[in-house]
Amino acid sequence: MLRVTVGRLETGKPWIIDFRTVPHWLNAGATQSGKSNLANALIVGLAPQPVALVGFDLKGGVEFTPTARGCLPWPPRGPSR
C-alpha cells in the first residue's frame, strides 16, 4: 500500500515511489519536463487507495480539473454564503 509506479528509469526498471517513506512530495521542473505526467501517475495510482490527497494547482485547475471530477465522490462546492 502507498507504493505507486510513476514511470520507468533509463534501465527500463519501474520507478516506484513509496509514500510510507516519502510522505510529502514537491513536483518541480522545467517546462515540458514531465511534471504533469508524474502528477497524473500519482493521482491515478493513489486514488484507489485509502488516502487523502492534498494538491495545489497553481494554474487554477487548468490541468487537473478533469482528473478531480473523476476522483471526487461528490462535486466540489464553493464557499458557503
Report on this structure.
Helix content is 23%, strand content 14%. The protein has helices at residues 35-46, 65-71; strands at residues 3-8, 14-18. The protein has a two-stranded antiparallel ribbon with strand order 1-2. It has two helices and two strands; from the N terminus they run ββαα. Strand 1 (3-8) and strand 2 form a beta hairpin. By secondary structure, the chain is of the alpha+beta class. The model has no long low-confidence stretch (mean pLDDT 75).
How do you describe this structure in short?
With about 80 residues, this protein is α+β, with helices and mostly antiparallel strands. The chain is built from two helices and two strands.
Topology:
Blueprint: E1 3-8, E2 14-18, H1 35-46, H2 65-71
Antiparallel strand pairs: 1-2
Mean pLDDT: 75
List segments where confidence is low: pLDDT < 50 over at least 5 consecutive residues: none
Q: Any idea what the shape is? A: globular
What's the arrangement of strands in the largest beta sheet?
A: 1-2
Class based on secondary structure composition and strand pairing: alpha+beta
The tally of helices reads 2
- First-to-last CA distance: 39 Å
Q: Describe the sheet with the most strands.
A: 2 strands, antiparallel
Q: What percent of the residues sit in helical stretches (DSSP H or I)?
A: 10-25%
Output the keywords:
two-stranded antiparallel ribbon; 23% helix; 81 residues; 2 strands; alpha+beta
